[in-house]
Amino acid sequence: MVAGIILILAGILLVIYPPLLSIIVALFLILTGAMVISITRYNRRYQRHFENPAIERFFR
C-alpha cells in the first residue's frame, strides 16, 4: 500500500515538474552502471568459475 502511495505521489510530481523524470532516469542509469562495475570487479577479484560458458563470457 505504501508503494502505491509513493508511486501516485511520484506520478503527480512528474506532472507538476517534468524535468524530474530526466533526473530519475539519469540516477537509475548511473546506479545501474555502478552496480555492473562492482559486480564485475567482485567476480574478477575472486576468480569464480561458472559452469555456464555464457556467464563466463559475460563477466570477462
Helix/strand class:
mainly alpha
Helical content band = over 70%
Listing every helix as H and every strand as E from the N terminus to the C terminus, the arrangement reads: HHH
Low-confidence stretches: none
Radius of gyration: 18 Å
Question: How many E-type strands?
Answer: 0
The percent range for strand residues is under 5%
Oligomer: single chain
Q: State the major sheet.
A: none
Give the count of helical stretches.
Answer: 3
Mean pLDDT across every amino acid position = 84
Question: How far apart, in Å, are the first and last alpha carbons?
Answer: 41 Å
Globular, elongated, flat, extended or rod-shaped: what is the shape?
elongated
Notable characteristics:
82% helix, 60 residues, mainly alpha, 3 helices, single chain
